[in-house]
Amino acid sequence: MFGEKLTQLRKQKGLSQNDLAEALGISRQAISKYENDLAEPDLDKIEQLRTILGISYADLLGDEPQQQAPSTRVPSDSITITSLINDQLGSYTGFQVAEGIPSKTAPSFLLIGESRHRGFLGTTRLAELGWYHTRATAETEIKKIQDAMQRGETIYHLAYTAKVNKKGTFGVRLADNTDHETQSN
Q1: Where, if anywhere, are coiled coils annotated (predicted)?
Q2: Which helix (H) or strand (E) holds 110?
């Protein structure tokens, strides 16, 4: 019963078992066990599921999942994004642009997501999400993310990142010298 509901809600949000497992900080096998009613998540995981899936406790634990009509959506205080730098899925509440050393062959601007989860000593967790050739393009991405949050969306796919190739362990190089639109949300 719970497992069937979780599977349905996860698929409605377009998440794989791996995506959901990474966001929860557990294994894909644990998600599989939840979905097959072989195990149940603890209360902390239920809260995280509720937040990631953008649903109420009743939707997750009740008899029938309710789809929220677009006209009744309330703004979201966080949004789930997959980093294009390390392929990690995370939930973020704020965003900022960091400027690197200007270069013709490497992107100069980095989009950073601020996590609601606190790190060691209560510090804000920051995650590198994507590279941008210009500040304007990075700020456009932030505006689109904020617009999605205002519409109550809980998942966003980065759309304006610079196309890069990894160079060595830490370096990146522009695949071309322009930003590209991967897909708009």
Answers
A1: none
A2: strand 109-118
Token output for 5: 């509901």
- Choose between 112 and 54: higher pLDDT: 112
Amino acid at 151: R
**How much of the chain is in helix, strand and coil states, percent to nearest 5?**
35, 30, 35
Q: What is the pTM of this model?
A: 0.55
- Count other C-beta atoms under 10 Å from residue 146's C-beta: 15
What confidence tens digit (pLDDT) does each residue in 108-126 have?
899 999 987 766 666 778 8
Q: Among residues 88, 103, 113, 157, which one has the least CA distance to residue 133?
A: 103
Length of the chain, in residues: 185
Q: Which domains does the chain have, with CATH numbers?
A: 2-67 (1.10.260.40), 72-179 (no CATH)
